[in-house]
Amino acid sequence: MESAAKTDSNAPIIVDVDLGNRSYQIYIGSGLLDQPHLLQQHVHGKRVLVVTNSTVAPLYLDKVVRREEQRESVEIEGRFDGDSGCVFKSLPPRLAIPQFLEEMRVL
């Protein structure tokens, strides 16, 4: 675990989850959605699918989508609202994402 900066009160704590080629980072802190560069540094393509669930979506989805749609280099292809069961990483919602992408003709 590492801290982005000790002097900045808005700096998140960053936890690196090392899973080889499936590694990712978890950002912990307040006001993270007001720091768009934190998300944008992980968006490498031009087409984006936002994956969320019924717990998180009402709180944050609109703000994330609005911010990303303002970037000319990114197009939001769709929004996948999975079950709240996604919180527990249950298999059926994860399998539903490729089907959703295929139906949207993204894959």
Task: Please tell me about this protein's structure.
There is one protein chain. By secondary structure, this protein is an alpha+beta fold. The protein has two domains: 34 residues, no CATH class; 65 residues. 28% of the residues lie in helices and 25% in strands. It has three helices and five strands; from the N terminus they run βββαβαβα. The strands form two sheets. It has a three-stranded antiparallel β-sheet, with no helix packed on it. Strands 4-5 form a two-stranded parallel ribbon. The chain is globular and about 45 Å long.
Care to give the gist of this entry?
A three-stranded antiparallel sheet has the order 1-2-3, with no helix packed on it. It has a two-stranded parallel sheet with strand order 4-5.
| Number of helical stretches of at least 4 residues | 3
- Count of discrete structural domains: 2
Shape: globular
Helix content: 25-40%
Number of β-strand runs: 5
Biggest sheet details: 3 strands, antiparallel
- Rg over CA atoms, rounded to whole Å, is 15 Å
Query: Which structural class fits the helix and strand makeup?
Result: alpha+beta
Mean pLDDT: 75
Biggest sheet strand order reads 1-2-3
Give the terminus-to-terminus CA distance.
35 Å
Low-confidence stretches: 84-89
The succession of helices and strands, N to C, reads EEEHEHEH
Strand content: 25-35%
InterPro entries: Dehydroquinate_synthase (IPR050071)
GO molecular function: 3-dehydroquinate synthase activity
Keywords: Lyase, NAD
Protein name: 3-dehydroquinate synthase
